[in-house]
What we know:
The complex is a heterodimer. Chain A has helices at residues 17-52, 54-61, 66-91, 95-125, 143-179, 189-213. By secondary structure, chain A is mainly alpha-helical. Chain A starts with 16 loop residues before the first helix and ends in a 7-residue tail after the last helix. Chain B is mostly helical. Chain B has three helices and no strands. In chain B, helix 1 (6-28) runs antiparallel to helix 2. The longest helix of chain B has 34 residues, at 63-96. Chain B is flat and about 65 Å long. Chains A and B meet through helix 1, helix 3 and helix 6 of A and helix 1, helix 2 and helix 3 of B.
Amino acid sequence: xxxxxxxxxxxxxxxxxxxxxxxxxxxxxxxxxxxxxxxxxxxxxxxxxxxxxxxxxxxxxxxxxxxxxxxxxxxxxxxxxxxxxxxxxxxxxxxxxxxxxxxxxxxxxxxxxxxxxxxxxxxxxxxxxxxxxxxxxxxxxxxxxxxxxxxxxxxxxxxxxxxxxxxxxxxxxxxxxxxxxxxxxxxxxxxxxxxxxxxxxxxxxxxxxxxxxxxxxxxx
Amino acid sequence: xxxxxxxxxxxxxxxxxxxxxxxxxxxxxxxxxxxxxxxxxxxxxxxxxxxxxxxxxxxxxxxxxxxxxxxxxxxxxxxxxxxxxxxxxxxxxxxxxxxxxxxxxxxx
Lengths: 220, 108
């Protein structure tokens, strides 16, 4: 099926397929290093304000939906497993398994975004969105700290959700290509590179979950 | 091409799920004193290491990729480390400046 693809296997600037794969992989890792710094700035801002307003942040985080945040962590971890299985299927030239695992990743990624959107809607109804001049009403002891917390909450989860949305879009393109019999064996690298991106976005959420949700738990 | 075996992928997933549940339940019980957040972030780092080494093939692939990944973490350490140095020393510097000189340097 892979022979349906008429584009040359190795682009002319590379000596061989191995070199092409190494270059692609390294390029993706360098991009991810810049992404670490991109998100790192947000984590730094969070750290400083959290040290200033530890109590206020914990109280404000109590208004985030811990149950949905916890479920979403499970959803995104499972999506990463299916992504890893998709990469394996692509490398082993299993077209059907590749398509199914890509679809499972898309479904779980979309479920994550759907749950996230529902949380945003809930926050909007409770007047906890200090953006766009919307009403912000907070009855706790330190509304200023809560405002900072919710600004960071929306900035960090919003940036993360944007990355997820881009990831789901790329996965859809890959799923169509895989359905047409492409992306198998020696042509499987786009699946692997998208996988690296997807796992990175998963890792960002692994840190967002304790920082934005768990600090609101009663004993933390 | 070397890649993680199927049992390896499933084992890592099982470990991730166990750590995910551990973070959640640890938050609900009172340990007292020692920061829960420190423990939670340590678990997060463990999860990230699992994801990076197996799901992202860092353990199996080219060592150049490991260098790029470590460079990202290193720059992040510079960003956060130096910024927090500033943060932790702000208060002492502010105390030194609490008796400002007469405003001789103010613009006319």
